[in-house]
# Entry
Amino acid sequence: MNNNAKSSGRTAIYIATWICLLALTALTVTVAGMNLGKYGALTSVLIASVKASLILLFFMHLKYETLLLKAMLLGTIATIAVIIGLTFFDVGIRY
Amino acid sequence: MENSELNFYNTDGRYKGIFSWILSTDHKRIGLLYLTAMFSFFLVAVTLGLLMRLELIAPGETIMTAPVYNAVFTVHGVIMIFLFIIPGIPAGLGNFFLPLQIGAQDVAFPRINLMSWWFYMSGAMVILISLFTGGGAPDTGWTFYVPYSLKTGTNVTLAVFGVFLLGISSTMTGINFVTTIHRLRAPGMKWFRMPLFSWALYATGWVQILATPVLGLTLLLLILERLFNIGLFDPSRGGDPLLFEHLFWIYSHPAVYIMILPAMGVVSEIIPVFARRTIFGYKMIAFSSIAIAFVGYLVWGHHMFTSGMSDISRIVFSFLTFIVAVPSGIKVFNWVSSMYKGSIDLKSPLLFTVAFIFLFSIGGITGLVNGALATNIHVHGTYFIVAHFHYTMFGGTAFAFFAALHYWFPKMFGRMYRERLAKTACIFLFIGFNVLYFPMFILGWEGMPRRYYDYLPEFQSLQVISTIGSWILVAGIVIMFYNLIRSVFRGEKAGNNPWGGSTLEWTTSSPPPAENFEEVPVVTGGPYRFR
Ligand code: HEM
# Structure
């Protein structure tokens, strides 16, 4: 929304977001070396989700958008989660 | 078409001649471009269908060899599904009528709309090229199942890339329609004042947006696997062939709702007008579209009951399949109730619609036979399936498509077709259809497998009946297209509202002006103002 009015204050936020992303990348690399066994993938996915959310919220301005757009995006993600869930559910109990 | 007043045909855009069409961003022109292309492909695929039926008139080789038959049913399936029935009603008639129905000047992104047509045509061309290059036409069936699609020497890679491009086109259309409905409704056009066709396009748009990318990715993975042997689907490399089936049907099952939802929308539009009754259960019909779109995501596993899924998954998917029948049933009951005590005027659009309800009900109910775990084992991969999906896609969607063509024809061209001829065509289509496909239920039940150019002698009598049905059906198709095409040029002038419809598209002139409405309409009530 109203981009111009707020853009100056946002630069700081963008830089902060970027630093967070870098930190999380470092964390991913560290965790990958820690050999967490079957929790390894889970941790990476969690960190990746946090990163994706940061990008969506700040870089892609979702935080400043209307409820409708947020709901649309969440609905989409929920659908995909359910689809992936149902597929993996089959793989998990097939054998 | 040559009405003296200004309409979108005689309003100059930026370009002249053919370019005023293929570079036009007017949703009406793009809709007509789609319709022309789609029906041309449709006729090609119908010809292939006829040839297959001819091959099956007697056991053994009649007019083609087994490999040719394999290629023919694949190409028939690919064209019918990806080039005809999926773009089908939304890209053709939806493009033309969505903005008119909600009182907008155009779709939200006119250029993306044009681009989606170009993607569609490029995809079609790539598929066409794939038939004559490399190893020749693909022979995998329209489903491109691994492992065969990885091993076959035919030109699967290129054909699949063509389908990928078609997927992009479909996604763009979906995004466009959803945005248009959110942003461009005329003043006073509240959600629950929207015509049910627009509601159906809304639900369809979401399915296109959410499901089609899955197809795109799956097909890219297939291409990568073919080119580089990555090992995604090949068990000897640690891959999982079932993964392909999952991914493929995660798109392709919702895709059947991309096909049927707009058809249901059309039916909900036509019945009130020709029964002179307000639609029964407006909100239930609108919500059941959304419910179908949503539950439709969760039933893809019912295509894979015999592929080696876990038992629990099978039970879950079978259960969900039964659930999705509920909203479809709601619609059928609402349509029939809407006609109850109406002043029914059985003009050709309604005749096609009634045929739709009948054929679609058979298709839907036999779907439950497929969806039940025990009977599925018996009918999987047989002609029962071939009959079932022709009843839903052809008897269902295509009949509704024909109904819509007849219903909106006077609006699109400002002219009227010959009513008697239209009814004759419909009757030929209906009889031919049942003679062609009903025997396939019996054949399948008796064990005739699909995708074979040959069969045991005891199946011959039913096969012959089916082939004769295909001739009757094609006679109907020829009459219908003759009537429509002739009337585009020579039909009598039709008024602006020949059926007495009450949705917005009937308030503007026929054919509509380039801007759709002289002035922005203001909506004060629901869409169906009848008794
Ligand atoms: C004149 C009209 C038509 C005729 C004569 C016809 C005939 C056939 C025949 C004989 C088969 C092959 C059965 C087999 O060997 O397994 C077939 C398959 C198929 N048809 Fe049609 N059909 C017609 C129209 C349609 C329409 C309108 C659609 C969809 C909108 C459609 C979609 C399909 C599909 C998806 C297949 C499966 C292809 C495959 O197995 O990969 N057909 N059709």
User: Anything to note?
Assistant: The pocket of protoporphyrin IX containing FE is lined by residues B 46, 49-50, 52-53, 73-74, 76-77, 80-81, 84-85, 141-142, 386, 390, 393-394, 398, 450-451, 470, 473-474 (CB under 6 Å). The domain at 3-507 of chain B is CATH 1.20.210.10 (Cytochrome C Oxidase; Chain A).
